[in-house]
Amino acid sequence: MWMSKTWLVQAFFIFITTESIGKLLDPCGHISPESPVIQLGSNFTAVCVLKEKCMDNFHVNANYIVWKINHFTVPKEQYAILNRTASSVTFTNITALSVQLTCNILTFGQIEQNVYGITVISGLPPEKPKNLNCIVYEGKKMMCQWDPGRETYLETNFTLKSEWATEKFADCQTKRATPTTCIVDYSPVYFVNIEVWVEAENALGKVSSNHINFDPVDKVKPSPPRNLSVSNSEELSSILKLSWINPNIKSVIRLKYNIQYRIKDDSTWNQIPPEDTSTTRSSFTVQDLQPFTEYVFRMRCMKEDGKGFWSDWSEEASGITYEDRPSKAPSFWYKIDPSHTNGYRSVQLIWKTLSPFETNGRILDYEVTLTRWKSRLQNYTVNDTKLTVNLTNDRYIATLTARNLVGKSDPSVLTIPACDFQATRPVMDLKAFPKDNKLWVEWTAPNESVRKYILEWCVLSDKLPCILDWQQEDGTTHRTYLRGNLVESKCYLITVTPVYADGPGRPESIKAYLKQAPVNVDSSHTEYTLSSLTSDTLYMVRMVAYTDEGGKDGPEFTFTTPKFAQGEIEAIVVPVCLAILFTTLLGVLFCFNKRDLIKKHIWPNVPDPSKSHIAQWSPPTPPRHNFNSKDQMYSDSNFTDVSVVEIEPNDKKPLPDDLKSLDLFRKEKSGTEGHSSGIGGSSCMSSSRPSISSGDENESAQNTSSTVQYSTVVHSGYRHQVPSVQVFSRSESTQPLLDSEERPEDLQLIDNVDSGDNILPRQQYFKQNCSQQETSPDISQFERSKPASAVSEEDFVRHRQQQISDMVQSSGSGQLKGFQEVSAADAFGPGVEGQGERFETVGVAAVIDEGMPKSYLPQTVRQGGYVPQ
Amino acid sequence: CCISPPAPLCLLALLLPPLRPAAPLSPAEPISQAYSLALYMQKNTSTLLQTYLQHQGSPFSDPGFSAPELQLSSLPPATVSFKVWHALDDGERLSRAQEAFLALTQHLQLVGDDQSDLNPDSPILLAQLSAARLRAQGLLGNMAAIMAALGLPIPKEEDTLGLVPFGASAFERKCRGYVVTREYGHWTDRVVRDLALLKAKYPA
């Protein structure tokens, strides 16, 4: 029961205490100071004083006090027991801005009982405000601003104080800001000095700024001038008049101004000299402006003596100056169409539009006047910048003026010389070089005074035509740059023509580049292929190595591009060769096709003696006397042709040599038959074989008739006698050959011949033969008799032939021919051999057709004919 | 010449230092400032009087209203004969103006209070009265500066009104206001003349 009573009492006590603390009605103690504000970094000491009643109730004293800061127990070392009821705690160098500090007691059972709590706030005292300044916006109240200094972490009030010597004004209160400003509550009173300062105050202190003393009128920032307007003058194209309304402050203070202007499309402002606008005014005339140009103006004002502030800029206003006559004569030049006819030439007059600052207005048109001699020829009014006129070949003077609303420009005068005018006096030392990304042209002026220079230029190109651009320069110029859109890496042909009073001088030309194709190659490359170069051209290449700091030139080297690209030669040569080959082949094919024709033409059919119808030859006995003397032979026309064939060898050998040659012949014949046949082969391959093979037969023939050398030729025929019967006679084959091929030789030979008698008849004979061959088929028959006649000289031969004829008669006409030939072969075999030798000695005459020996055969026959004699 | 200059140079050297501190006390600057203020006030005095009369109703607001015979004993009259004015020296002129504007500031304050009662919905009039009073107050300061610069005694501030004005009727207050605003204009005109004379005498 007692126990329960005590518990109840305790519970009651606890209830009461908790209730009292909870309601803060009767705290068990308190902390001093109550709500401290301390400076950051300073020391702070708080004291907790317990109440007697509490101490009794809880049976505690100051020793039981526990300090807590932000719910953490403060170490005992910072405590100090002042007496039975009071305990203090000390903190050094406080850095926290706000802390909760509580005083607690440790009651029975180690239960912490909160007694009291405070919030410790720390911060900094205000700094002295700096840079206090005031400004009076026109029509508004004065505003002052200052630099509040460092952050205090505490609520700091700023008070702007202002006073006159005789009067104090209402304070202006404000809070911290950057910069801190305050607008006073009263209208400013100008011309009375006012003293102004700022006081900054917080829990840790109060500080005042320096006092400033000023007349508010010196702190005025006027409103900008308004209603700015611009008007031009028809009398003066170079002026614009500005007018405006001054701000109201003008009634209090005098003003000065800044007036700025710019050309509308420009961005930089020009300012009128301030000394011209240093007094109060409401208008201003701006001079030295360009005619017909839109200008934009703006202005501002401030107190005349410069105290105070410039107003803001006024709104911009613009105006256009009045037009003036064009300030410059246009550039003027002409082109003559080279194809002039009938004493007229087409001349194109060209000119350039003036730049906007030269036109001084809107160009209405151009006036061109052409004067021939002294008489005014014609006026033209042109809107374009060119005019094509047909002029005679005389000298003309053209003038050009540009016209606008106000007037005309000065005239540009151009002399168009007569057609036969020889231009002289060119400029000298013409140079062109790129500089500052422009192509500069420089020249030395001729000695005479030049009115102007005309520069023409165009891009030199293989593909495009040279489209001229041009410009005009004053006569005093000797260096300029081309004012056109020039492109890099293009070769420009620049022509400079000086223009004198009496006409243009001789043009000088030069080629130049604006920039010569620089190629940037990555540093990792050590090879670069230059493309689109012109063939057969000398190029110069220079390498420059660059780092970030700059570059260094390498040596220059030059090379010439080849005339033909790789493979181009092959492309040309191969088809040409092929074409030649093809043509040749075609020709060959053609020849092959037409070979018969050609052969007939070049190598006429050679009569095959073997096929001669000697057998048919009727054996009338030739008169013997024929062989005795040539004269007789020729006189006897019936046998001329036969006998003449024999003449040639005869000619080669003068008659006195005949014996000797016969000796040789005989020797040869008797000694070496094979050899002679060989010789015959060398001269005529086709006939040699038969001659060799005929050796035996010859011998056999010899056996039969000792003197039958002559019959060798026929021996080949002997072979053929069986298979075929040739219609060709010996004479037929030889005559064309002699005619066509051997004639030069013959002529030569003729010269050598001693006996002139022979020449004419032989030629006659040749002709005769030719005609005979061509015309009469009968001749064959007739000629066939020729060898026969030769052979028939010999009695022996005749005798034999008689025999043959007998045989023929017996065996029939078909075999008659063959027999004849056989007999002939037998008879002539040795003769041919001897003849071969003879030919050899003769040389060229011997190198003939296989028919030749046969044709000469009669000769040898005749010689042989002599032998027996 | 070159050997004997020390004496005058020394004299100059001795004289200059005391002059320098005296420079800010030069009367030209406060005279000029006071003159500017007086001119500025002068531009507004007629406006103030017109504004005042318009707000008082008939007969004050009648066109051509004038009552030159009305005077206030507490306000020194501005009218003075040229001979008298011309005979005054600078100190006397300044002190009389000082006296008058001292009274005017108090009277303008009184009129302002009266008008706050009579015409509480006329902020323009109240503002003009307030501005006029403030300018008069400023002029007093400027004149004090001039007198200080000229070494003249500054008159002691007196209460010229005392308890007199209280209990006046509305018409009396309107009349009083009329006289004050009128005299304010007259005294401003007179002080402009005074200061112009001084300005000529002490050019900047």
From TrEMBL, chain A:
Membrane topology, from the record: Single-pass type I membrane protein
One Pfam family it belongs to: LIFR_D4
Family of the protein in this entry: Belongs to the type I cytokine receptor family. Type 2 subfamily.
Highest taxon of source: Eukaryota
Bias-annotated ranges (Low complexity): 682-695
GO MF assignments: interleukin-6 binding; interleukin-6 receptor activity
SUPFAM superfamilies membership: Fibronectin type III
Chief place where the protein resides: membrane
GO cellular component: external side of plasma membrane; receptor complex
Name of the protein: Interleukin-6 receptor subunit beta
Gene encoding the protein: IL6ST
Lineage: Eukaryota, Metazoa, Chordata, Craniata, Vertebrata
InterPro entries referenced in this protein's UniProt entry, alphabetically: FN3_dom (IPR003961), FN3_sf (IPR036116), Hematopoietin_rcpt_Gp130_CS (IPR003529), Ig-like_fold (IPR013783), IgC2-like_lig-bd (IPR010457), Type-I_Cytokine_Rcpt (IPR050379)
UniProtKB/TrEMBL annotation, chain B:
Subcellular location: Secreted
Primary residence: secreted
Annotated Gene Ontology cellular component terms: extracellular space
InterPro entries: 4_helix_cytokine-like_core (IPR009079), PRF/CT (IPR010681)
GO molecular function per UniProt: ciliary neurotrophic factor receptor binding; cytokine activity; leukemia inhibitory factor receptor binding
This protein's name: Cardiotrophin-2
Signal sequence extent: 1-24
